[in-house]
Write a structure and sequence with these properties.
The chain is mainly alpha-helical. Helices cover 73% and strands 0% of the residues. The protein is elongated. InterPro entries: PhaG_MnhG_YufB.
């Protein structure tokens, strides 16, 4: 093995370790939003390491080729841009689906509650505390 092949092999092994670590982390992630964010090491580091390993092998066999360097750089920036924009849009769509509006949840719980008891000025069921920042009447909403 030449030195270039050893360097390329080390880069491929490092990329493989990152992909395996990301896979294990994806299995253990508690929700979809966390899974989308865990793709960062693979897209941001592992794929560029594989591109660099391929470039090193090409240069060791055929010599320096400027066009190969340009192709790898374009691919590298393309992967980073597409990965970041894609994960942004996936994260936004997942966040919109998984996050619950607290006020809506309280109103829904109040409607579905069978033992709906009005205690003082709290129209919510027992155990649900009203939001202190919420306006108390329609006139309060206009004042804020």
């Amino acid at each position: 093995m030449t030195i270039a092949e050893i360097i390329a092999a080390v880069l491929v092994i490092a990329a493989t370790v990152m992909v395996v670590a990301t896979t294990v982390a994806l299995w253990r992630a508690p929700d979809a939003l966390t899974r989308v964010n865990l793709l960062g090491p693979t897209v941001g580091v592992a794929v560029p390491l594989l591109l660099c390993a391929k470039l090193i092998i090409d240069w060791s066999t055929t010599g320096f080729d400027f066009w190969n360097l340009v192709k790898v750089l374009l691919t590298l920036f393309g992967v980073w841009i597409i990965g970041s924009v894609g994960s942004f849009y996936m994260g936004r769509s997942i966040y919109g689906v998984t996050v619950t509006d607290v006020k809506f949840a309280r109103r829904k719980a109040a409607r579905e509650s069978k033992d709906h008891k009005v205690v003082a000025d709290n129209p919510l069921p027992a155990g649900i505390v009203p939001d202190p920042n919420a306006p108390q009447s329609p006139g309060d909403a206009a004042a804020q």
